[in-house]
Description:
The protein is an alpha/beta fold. Helix content is about 30%, strand content about 20%. Strands 1-8-7-6-5-2-4-3 form an 8-stranded mixed β-sheet. β5, α4 and β6 form a beta-alpha-beta unit. The two termini are about 25 Å apart.
Amino acid sequence: MTTGIVRCAAVAAAVAAMLVSGAGRVSADTASAAALKAAFLYNFVRFIEWPSDSLPPSRALTICIAGDQAVADALDEMVRGRSVLGHEVALLRPRVDDESVKACHVLYVSGLDQRRAVELIDRLAGAPVLTASDCDNFAELGGVAHFFVDNGKMRFAVALRQVSPCCRYSAGSGIMIPLFR
């Protein structure tokens, strides 16, 4: 296992339980990679607390998908008419190089090479944005979550240096990530 990266079995189990309980109605046996990524993204937000100034009670929680139409379509279907933590869910499909990505609460990007991934992470430094990608080594490059396939199963890794182990506080971003709710 790479230093600084932890596979989040507890969160994965919670996400799997949510999937089985009906959030998104995705079967692990038949789900596409896009549907699984969408389900992970949708359910990640249940474990996050954003600073009140970035997500006041009246504001929609914004999940942004850049570079993966299939994940965006699956998430769009999943969030339609739903709310999370008392917030309506808004789905945006920004371009990665657009400054509007700073307004996202969750940003999933696909199709980036490592250079562009680092540029994006640097641009978002200090912003309360949970970043996720399937870009190789995304968590090691400074992103928060990296999706990957291991032995035919969708997995994710979380960068410990982005999330302090003692209080689950994402360094500089103001995002609180409690282990359990």
